[in-house]
What does this fold into?
Amino acid sequence: MVTNKELAELIFPEIKETIEDLEKKYPERNLKEGAEVTRFAPSPTGFLHTGSLFTSLICHKVARDSGGVFYVRLEDTDTKREIQGSGEQLLEQLKLFNIVPDEGYLGNSQKGNYGPYIQSQRADIYKVVIKYLLENGLAYPDFASQEELDEIRKKQEEQKLTPGYYGEFAKYRFLTNDERKERILNGEPYVIRFKSSGNHLNKVPVSDLVHGDFEIAENDLDIVILKSDGLPTYHFAHVCDDHFMRTTTVIRGEEWIASLPIHVQLFATLGWKAPKYAHLPVIMKIGENGNKRKLSKRHDKEAAVSFFLEDGYPSEALIMYLMTIANSNFEEWIFEHKFTGMEEFKFSFSKMSLEGALFDMGKLSFFSKEILGRMNKHEILERTKKYAKEFNPELYSLVERDENYFMEIMNIEREKENPRKDYEKLGNLKEIIGFFYNDIYEELSSNIVFNEKFSNQDIKDVLAQVRDNLSLEQDEQNWFNNMKEIASFLGFATDRKALKANPEAFKGSVSDVAEIIRIALTTRKNSPNLYYVMQLLKKSECDRRFNSVISKL
Ligand code: GLU
It folds into this structure.
């Protein structure tokens, strides 16, 4: 009769190491009390998802706050879904958000004593553990073909039973080792399954740092642990890796709660202490039908971190926004701290909301305006160049024409106690400031639209008066008073109140005059402060633009 040990040897003759060897090779980490070892474990299957950025932010924060270790592990065991180069790209993107691992997979290299940190390079480690399970009758080779699995599923559907490979349906669980050996020697393909001793009627207590303590039904599935390609499945791999990499807290998306029964059972079977778990709420959005749904890779631009980078949102804004999702008290905190030094904020799992947060573009743009508004002109120049070089060549060449001029444009009402927040992102900068450049102004001015409540003659009169009588050689207050005089002379009220009190008596108010000037000079209804716009353009260019508009009316 073939023993379990002989069967294990038949399957893995090349594996000589034991679990004890691995325990020695990857010893407990020597860290101070309370230090957390966390990991971000992306699969290289495409772009960095906003939800993954959220997870990695929390992993990073928890390790930093506790003086622990944050590492990245590349979970590439699903070779069919792998997209070449996406692992490197994920790491590059994380770096843009200042999420830099202390150890692990770094994109082009790996660092640390607990590696390799790429799962496909850890096949032998998994095999050591699986060999142990086989030797102890806790795993078995399964020869079920796709047809057989389909057949099982069909039967379960007919009988309205939970689908899966378990109990009496786990047909190859009942083979003798002699039969197993014979099939293997015959070259039959197989996978290795975990032999579950669970019963789904039993309840197991689990504890989660976000969700608290609760009970789950015990796992009774004989899950696949090693696929026919020699690589493990996620469930099994993460258990081995988090054990031997000495992770203290597994932080991952809520979608994994459902498989927690499998994970706790695997840890218990192996006699390993399970890490703490923190399942983070998913980021949602209101769908077309008005219901909440998960941000979807396929349908939502906000699902991809690259969208924010390409559109020129400052990375700090997205990070701050995500932190408000994590802990709602963060918003007030960062406000008090003038939008800097978020490393000092104390994150807490217990303050995390259990409900999936709705992605709020408005809040992101609030943070973005604050951050862009608080940079000095040199910072904004550098930031814009860096962004534009990669994503926006037109903007890049605009900035490059004259960096000082660009800085002056961006410096309007900047570098003061309460800077203006004119800019939400760098992606539409050219639209907002393009008019400062004469050639772009020329293009835009071919379709200038004024408020239709004014006749062409009214507009011409305003522009001619402003051209002839509004001096720029005075401070903003006097300049505005000067504009009021012109307004009054042309039959406009000098303030809104006067207009409101007696609408028939006026053509409009001084703000209409300002709007006419603004549109003539910038082609836009919104622009940075008009006084400074005129100062920068200079009197001669303003007059040239007024004349050109007048001649076209
Ligand atoms: N590779 C898994 C994923 O990308 C990781 C889940 C985990 O963090 O354990 O979702």
In short: The mean pLDDT is 95. The pocket of glutamic acid is lined by residues 41-43, 75, 234, 238, 250, 252 (CB under 6 Å). The CA atoms of residues 249 and 276 lie 5 Å apart. The longest strand covers residues 203-208.
